[in-house]
Amino acid sequence: MGCGCKITTCYMVPCSITTPNECLWTDWLIERKLYGHQAKHYACIKRSDGTCSWYRGGPPPEKEFIDISEP
């Protein structure tokens, strides 16, 4: 909202964007759902060069690595 990006839904291949300020929404193509993984976890954000791209949202991980120890 208010970012100047346009989300274009991809229903079948081939699909592409027509302007640099578009993000290609592929949930329907990949999962046959309109509100799949991309819709739930990513946001189309305008970058400093004026183009738009998908960025993953959500809370940061609790740990950056997993501690594995021998029993």
Provide a descriptive summary of the structure in words.
The chain has 71 residues and is α+β, with helices and mostly antiparallel strands. It has one domain: Alpha-Beta Complex (Tissue inhibitor of metalloproteinase-1. Chain B, domain 1), CATH 3.90.370.10. The chain is 14% helix and 25% strand. It has helices at 27-31, 37-41, and strands at residues 6-9, 22-25, 42-46, 52-56.
Average of per-residue pLDDT values: 81
The overall strand count is 4
CATH superfamily: Tissue inhibitor of metalloproteinase-1. Chain B, domain 1
Q: What is the 3D shape?
A: flat
Helix-strand sequence: EEHHEE
Q: What proportion of the residues is helical, as a percent range? A: 10-25%
Oligomer state equals single chain
The helix tally amounts to 2
Structural class: alpha+beta
Largest sheet: 2 strands, parallel
Termini distance? 51 Å
Number of domains: 1
